[in-house]
What does this fold into?
Amino acid sequence: MTNFAAALLLWTLISPSSGGGHGTEEHWPTHRACSNEGLELLYQSCDPLQDFGFSVDQCSRHLKPNLNIRFGIILREDIRELFLDISLMNKGSSILNYTYPICEEDLPKFSFCGRKKGEKIYYSGPINNPAFEVYKGVYQVLAEVYNEKRSIVACANATLICS
Ligand SMILES: *[C@@H]1O[C@H](CO)[C@@H](O)[C@H](O)[C@H]1NC(C)=O
Ligand SMILES: *[C@@H]1O[C@H](CO)[C@@H](O)[C@H](O)[C@H]1NC(C)=O
It folds into this structure.
């Protein structure tokens, strides 16, 4: 929670609307989305234009269904439709590629679907995931969120450590 608050504060301070310029070769700071019961998720924004806040409640190796997450972001694009691509790697080899529709024209699953460019979104609530088990290891995760025009809305590379 504290990490999330820190990330959110940082995000507010350095987001484009606050006018702070920065070079594209700089990396955003690494944030901890959760750390608990042998599972840790660290992430870094890979969108050169902005950082964002993200955290997961009840993080554990035995991931419960319907996890609660929180995130805050400023929209770079309209999000009539929104998709999430996740790719998971372990020791350099690809394990999983997955696309999840977050907002579809006929099926807006979340209250923020349909928001416009420039609006700030803050979401805190369940994500309707199935339960699953995370096996021991260190995983690299790349997550891209994009709209119906395939314009990037958010991007993160993350490390998932399960010990
Ligand atoms: C995931 O996508 C990448 C890039 O398109 C590809 O190289 C990789 O083989 C895919 N992995 C799986 C498990 O399908
Ligand atoms: C994100 O990617 C960069 C560059 O490959 C890497 O140095 C960094 O450790 C990664 N961050 C996380 C949290 O996985």
Q: What stands out?
A: Residues 89 and 140 are 5 Å apart (CA to CA). Residues 2-14 form the longest helix (13 residues). The two ends are 22 Å apart (CA to CA). The mean pLDDT is 87.
